[in-house]
Amino acid sequence: METTWTVLSTALVAYALGSFPTAYLVGRLARGIDLRTAGEGNVGARNTFHEVGPWWGVGVTALDMGKGAAVALLYGRSPLWQLAVGAAFLVIGHAYPVWLRFVGGKGLASAGGFSVALFPWSGLVAAGAGGVAWLLTRRFLPTLVIVAVLIFACAPLFGYEWPVILVALGAFALVALKRVVDEPRMRRIEAETGWDRVRGGTRP
């Protein structure tokens, strides 16, 4: 019974944190738009960056990473299975928030924040490389991808344990799965808005 309660409470807390609709609220309050139907149709940092404004996108990235970091800090010293439950429901909450009728984002920034909190030295290296990538490209998505890849590439070098690394990788696998599930809806919205999938933003 105690284990069942631990699973349920962990899932509920992680889901509640993940489901906080940061990008949606920013879109509504800052520009009066619904990011579920604007731009690429994703309730996330990249869509916020292009459809609401760069600094708004940066803010959403930070807050969504904070959601992931909170879950990692809550369960980072718990048994591995509990950390895995927290990681899974963090992404599920972001992807399927009850507050938005279960139409959410992918969870990339949340999974990233979760990983940075678990592997802070790797996160520091990845953040530095991401800063350089941003200065060179001025593109939001490639910068995030570089940061995510380097977090995991560097984690073993700093001695972080492989079971924990695999839990964090599992969170990113759920992000990728949500991307596949969302593909038909996003293509339909992109066709309506003129979204440029390669560079981001809507075409003139």
Estimate the global geometry from the Cα principal axes: globular
**Tally of alpha and pi helices:** 9
- Compute the gyration radius: what is it? 17 Å
What is the total number of structural domains?
1
Overview of this protein structure:
The chain is mostly helical and 204 residues long. It has one domain (2-193). It is 73% helix and 0% strand. The protein contains 9 helices and no strands. It has helices spanning 2-19, 22-31, 45-51, 54-75, 80-95, 108-118, 120-137, 140-154, 162-193. Helix 1 (2-19) packs antiparallel against helix 4 (54-75), helix 1 runs parallel beside helix 5 (80-95) and helix 6 (108-118) packs parallel to helix 8. The mean pLDDT is 93.
Concise summary:
With 204 residues, this protein is an all-alpha fold. It has helices at 2-19, 22-31, 45-51, 54-75, 80-95, 108-118, 120-137, 140-154, 162-193.
Secondary-structure topology with pairs:
Blueprint lengths: L1 H18 L2 H10 L13 H7 L2 H22 L4 H16 L12 H11 L1 H18 L2 H15 L7 H32 L11
Helix pairs in contact: 1-4, 1-5, 2-3, 3-4, 4-5, 4-6, 5-6, 5-9, 6-7, 6-8, 6-9, 7-8
Keywords summarizing the entry:
single chain; 204 residues; mainly alpha
